[in-house]
């Protein structure tokens, strides 16, 4: 779901209510169907020269049959930022093959109210330059991504044209289908006729490449009807037999075991909004058992000119779970603090936090979030689960 929703909060609210209605229908079927939610937006203001607009792709809810939990997370979202559609499709292409159960039909629904404005290089293009680009040639056929990449206004600061964002989105849905050919991909143009700038071509391309359909939705009722139509269309026949995904050089999905470790995760590594030498991450426990953090591996870059840079402490929520002067890259720490301080209760999310000292401030002006990573080892019942987010290579 596009979380940028430029224009008005009513668009996001309409999408939220329509998704809740769809989930109600799915829940009533009681056939083992699961739902997940991936949101995407980008930084509203560029950083650096040339300006970069980091993409924020978040797995808000992993596949679940707990519709009440899904509802709480969905309704907590707000709207902001740009539109990195290509990055979102690439993220789904990586996640879905790991999470998919062959007994179910994988269905992807792209909800968006605008045009892609941020490409895979985090270059930002004003929507007014992307909107006029047509993906169709005179014969009514789609151009190739390579052709689209060379269309539109030229931006010397990036040495790229505005078609870059559209081309990345076109390749994103191709990679998704290559990674999981069984997937059906639909698109819904949220309020495409009710105002604002819009490019319907890209959503039509996504649906055609994904063997689905594209639906316009000019108000909340039309949006709800579109989602119900998608549900009906995608469930009118039995799911196809599993096939071996076509290898892709950018996708290396690996099967995930169906056990308790699939119900815990660490997500959304980010800079603290006001503490400019702190980072945060969400530790999510969707299992029926408590999850205890036993070991933390924090990946952070060497900082030339800052030889005294160190890690001061880790917190879980408001409680310190480790304090010491950590200088290693990465910093690998087995925790010995009280288990009660480092426990995430069942069906809860807790915020992990690290405090750095003697570093550049603010950190985000010197380093991108991709320079940092986190691996946690969580004890859940009798299982030791390894979960990671961000850059986790030495």
Could you walk me through the main structural features you see in this protein, from its secondary elements to its overall organization?
This protein is of the alpha+beta class. It has 2 domains: 9-234, 3-Layer(aba) Sandwich (Rossmann fold), CATH 3.40.50.410; 260-390, Immunoglobulin-like. It is built from 8 helices and 17 strands. It has helices spanning 9-29, 67-75, 85-99, 127-130, 145-149, 163-179, 200-209, 220-234; strands at 35-42, 55-64, 107-112, 154-155, 160-161, 184-190, 211-217, 264-271, 278-285, 291-299, 310-316, 319-326, 331-334, 343-344, 348-357, 373-380, 383-390. The strands form 5 sheets. Strands 8-9-15-11-12 form a 5-stranded antiparallel sheet, with no helix packed on it. Strands 10, 13, 14, 16 and 17 form a 5-stranded antiparallel sheet that branches. It has a 3-stranded parallel sheet with strand order 3-6-7. Strand 11 (310-316) and strand 12 (319-326) form a beta hairpin. Helix 3 (85-99) packs parallel to helix 6 (163-179). The longest helix is centred in the first third of the chain and has 21 residues, at 9-29. The chain is globular and about 65 Å long. The two termini are 33 Å apart.
């Amino acid at each position: 779901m596009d979380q940028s929703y430029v224009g008005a909060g009513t668009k996001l609210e309409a999408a939220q209510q329509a998704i809740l209605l769809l989930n109600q229908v799915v829940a009533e079927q009681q056939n083992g169907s699961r739902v997940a939610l991936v949101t995407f937006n980008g930084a509203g203001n560029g950083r650096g020269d040339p300006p970069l607009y980091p993409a924020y792709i978040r797995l808000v809810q992993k596949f679940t049959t707990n519709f009440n939990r899904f509802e709480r997370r969905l309704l907590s979202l707000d709207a902001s930022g740009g539109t990195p559609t290509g990055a979102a499709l690439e993220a789904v292409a990586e996640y879905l093959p790991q999470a998919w159960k062959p007994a179910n039909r994988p269905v992807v629904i792209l909800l968006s109210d605008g045009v892609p404005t941020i490409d895979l290089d985090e270059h930002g293009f004003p929507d007014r330059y992307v909107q006029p680009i047509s993906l169709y040639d005179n014969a009514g056929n789609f151009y190739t991504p390579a052709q689209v990449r060379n269309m539109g206004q030229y931006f010397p600061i990036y040495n790229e044209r505005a078609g870059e964002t559209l081309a990345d989105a076109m390749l994103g849905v191709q990679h998704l289908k290559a990674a999981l050919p069984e997937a059906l991909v639909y698109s819904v143009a949220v309020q495409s006729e009710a105002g604002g700038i819009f490019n319907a071509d890209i959503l039509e391309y996504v649906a055609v490449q994904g063997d689905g359909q594209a639906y316009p939705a000019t108000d909340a009722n039309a949006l709800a009807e579109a989602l119900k139509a998608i549900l009906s269309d995608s469930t009118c026949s039995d799911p196809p037999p599993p096939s071996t995904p076509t290898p892709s050089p950018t996708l290396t999905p690996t099967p995930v075991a169906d056990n308790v470790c699939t119900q815990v995760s660490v997500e959304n590594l980010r800079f603290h909004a006001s503490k400019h030498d702190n980072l945060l991450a969400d530790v999510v426990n969707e299992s029926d058992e408590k999850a205890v953090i036993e070991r933390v591996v924090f990946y952070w870059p060497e900082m030339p000119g800052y030889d005294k840079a160190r890690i001061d402490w880790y917190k879980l929520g408001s409680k310190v779970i480790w304090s010491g002067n950590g200088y290693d890259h990465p910093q690998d720490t087995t925790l010995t603090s009280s288990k009660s301080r480092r426990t995430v209760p069942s069906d809860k999310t807790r915020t992990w936090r690290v405090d750095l000292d003697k570093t550049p401030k603010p950190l985000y002006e010197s380093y991108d979030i991709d320079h940092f990573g986190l691996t946690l080892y969580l004890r859940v019942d009798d299982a030791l689960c390894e979960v990671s987010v961000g850059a986790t290579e030495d």
